[in-house]
Description:
Mean pLDDT: 96
Strand content: 5-15%
Largest sheet: 5 strands, parallel
Structural class: alpha/beta
Strand order of the largest sheet: 5-2-1-6-9
Shape: globular
Radius of gyration: 22 Å
Number of strands: 13
Distance between the termini: 55 Å
Low-confidence stretches: none
Amino acid sequence: MRLSNASLDRLPGHVRRPGYDRARVTPGIVHLGVGAFHRAHQAVFIDDLLAGGATNWGIVGASLRNSDTHDALAPQDGLYTVAIQSGAATEHRVVGSIIKTEVAKANPARLIARMADPATRIVSLTITEKGYCHTPQTGELNERHPDIVHDLENPDAPRSAAGFIVAALSRRKASGAAPFTVLCCDNLPANGHTVGRIVKRFAALKSPELGNWIAGEVAFPSTMVDRIVPETTDADRADVSVALGMADAWPVVTEPFTQWIVEDRFPAGRPDFAAAGVQLVADVTPFEQMKLRLLNGSHSALAYLGYLAGYETIAATMADSRFAAYARQLMEEAAVTLTVPAGTDLSAYSATLLERFSNPALHHHNAQIAMDGSQKLPQRLLGTLRDRLMLGLPIETHALAVAGWMRYVTGVDELGREIDVRDPIAPELAAAARMAGPVADRLAPALLDVSPVFGTLGADPRVRKAVTDALARLHDLGASRAVQA
């Protein structure tokens, strides 16, 4: 038996299910990038709101690239399970807020029409850093990106998120309909401002008049999102199917902790987010910086160095006291660069992060976190490093994390085994590594000169020395002993 509307009443009593009539739910949100994180985070918040009676805020989830999620969820009427894992037990919850799924490339016209429909008041995104076709160091649209070039030439059959958003907004402008709010839920610095800048520039390239209208009428609130969501494995599917007594082709696995902080700017209207536990604020920037530098920065550092040391998951890495101490030190050094609202306890937040990272039930693979490092490093690690330099503080701890990334993207681990490096500029990184060879004095400068990652920071002699020295220690000592040192 397969999870679906027809089988909901046959779920075991311990499995939580939608507390509302799904047949009465109508769409109010189109979400681009309907992956695991969205389904464990925003879709759960919306599920709670639907149970409270906000039935005109259902989600239409669209995949921009492939049909895997659609193919799994369509036969299940959009239903899926969230398995919430702690060290003590696993709680299972079936979520029903996604009422329809689309595959953008299969029918771009249908997705544009759905976004252009006045019933759609929010278009949200979790497409990962690389999905924005921008330069991470500057936050500007990469106008030479192949998808951007294609979308400007083929506005009715776009590939990029910016292309779809602008195509739909163009139709709403032409019809006199109010624009939707664009709600970014990705780990980008000042994510609403960044996406706004990208979309406005794309629109201006298409039509200056349209660009001006979007700049004046469309809201791009920033957000901070936080929940650890590992990649779903076949073992997870098997466990969930046993718990449900029926098959679920694409459940998601996550932790008990969840947080969503949103700037309250929604001219087209929004559901009562606060009723579901969302924190509405005037400025999300300090919360975003806190999360990027403390959680995401230490997560990436642990992923690269832990992988090199032979550990498969974050929890396994944290079980090594040397890495746990290193993560604590990274957070302490990042914390001094932050300015947070009164009453925010950075020490308590860091302690919670260390506890979450150590959750033995959560198998968050280092290789998953290590993906797309060229897009992640600028906001997760390099911003902290730059600010510590401005404050006249040492940077060796963060330099080791950067060196761990460098060692990782060479594509060969400490035992000579191949690393599957997944990154938008993996060929460029591999070419630089081949030219330099496994010699820190050559490899570190070669990678620091990759301007899409490091910008002008890579030319700073203090950075070059600290990163080169850290990379030399990694080569000489190995990751575990380098971290301990």
